[in-house]
From TrEMBL:
<dbReference type="Pfam" id="PF21853">
    <property type="entry name" value="DUF6912"/>
</dbReference>
<protein>
    <submittedName>
        <fullName>Uncharacterized protein</fullName>
    </submittedName>
</protein>
<dbReference type="InterPro" id="IPR054206">
    <property type="entry name" value="DUF6912"/>
</dbReference>
Length: 161
């Protein structure tokens, strides 16, 4: 299953030959619940559904940065393919935020190839810091920013802020 894993830039340091070991954690995917929810909004293109899952992972990356403020202040989403046996799709909590529609859980430690990474451009660091301080305008600016795409062969050149 293709997953969009919220991460922090320090996790890129753990890559070995383009592979990363991920422990149990929340990630995002084009789940049946997300597909159904977006179909109600006339979104049925698989790439658009995957993009929504990636955006949810970017939001969760912000949460990961808040939990470890010593890491670079840039959001990171890793695209990886995880065997279905190591992924569960929890039931959607209708009272929760929209991100619950794409939420999945990696249930066991797994080493997988990183397909690509999506990272904020370095000048987003100020908005990340402001967003984590509760600045609603910074949150909106981050929502409007596109994450930069890096191929697995380019991961060593990802800017660190």
């Amino acid at each position: 299953m293709r997953l969009y894993v919220p991460a922090t830039l320090d996790e890129l340091d753990t890559l070995t030959s383009g592979r990363i070991t991920l422990g149990p954690r929340r990630a995002h995917a084009a789940t049946p619940a997300l597909v159904a929810a977006l179909a109600e909004e006339d979104v049925d293109d698989v790439e658009e559904v995957e993009f929504v899952a990636q955006l949810a992972a970017a939001d969760d990356s912000l949460v990961a940065i808040a939990a470890n403020p010593s890491v670079p202040w840039l959001r990171l989403v890793l695209s990886v393919d995880v065997p279905d046996a190591h992924v569960t799709v929890p039931p959607v909590d209708a009272t929760a935020d929209d991100a619950s529609y794409s939420a999945v859980e990696i249930t066991a430690e797994v080493t997988v190839a990183v397909v690509c990474a999506h990272v904020d451009e370095p000048d987003a660091a100020g908005d990340v810091q402001a967003a984590l301080s509760g600045d609603d305008e910074a949150i909106e600016r981050l929502a409007d920013r596109d994450l930069l795409w890096y191929d697995t062969t380019e991961l060593s050149s990802v800017p660190r802020g």
